[in-house]
Write a structure and sequence with these properties.
With 85 residues, the protein is an alpha/beta fold. The chain is 35% helix and 20% strand. The chain is built from 3 helices and 3 strands. The protein has a 3-stranded parallel beta sheet with strand order 1-2-3.
């Protein structure tokens, strides 16, 4: 069993994952951009990792930043992540 999960999503999906993890007694780590810094998934998660500027191409779609967030927290993303070039 996991003790903490990094959530590689945002918005409503991430909020549902956070709630489910809380019910299961598992910690959650949200990732966020500048635009989402006050979003519910960020404040609801146990931890949050800043990815960068608001543009998805400079934050959420940056494989290196998501992998760095996973390494920093010691966790892998909780959902399949597809990176396109």
């Amino acid at each position: 069993m996991f003790d903490k999960v990094l959530i590689a999503n945002r918005g409503a999906i991430a909020c549902r994952i956070v709630r489910t993890l809380q019910r299961m007694g598992i910690g959650s780590v949200a990732v966020y951009s500048e635009a989402d810094r006050h979003s519910l998934h960020v404040t609801a998660a146990d931890e949050a990792v800043f990815l960068g500027p608001s543009a998805p191409s400079e934050s959420y779609l940056r494989q290196d930043k998501l992998l760095a967030a996973a390494r920093t927290t010691g966790r892998a993303p909780s959902t399949p992540v597809r990176f396109s070039q």
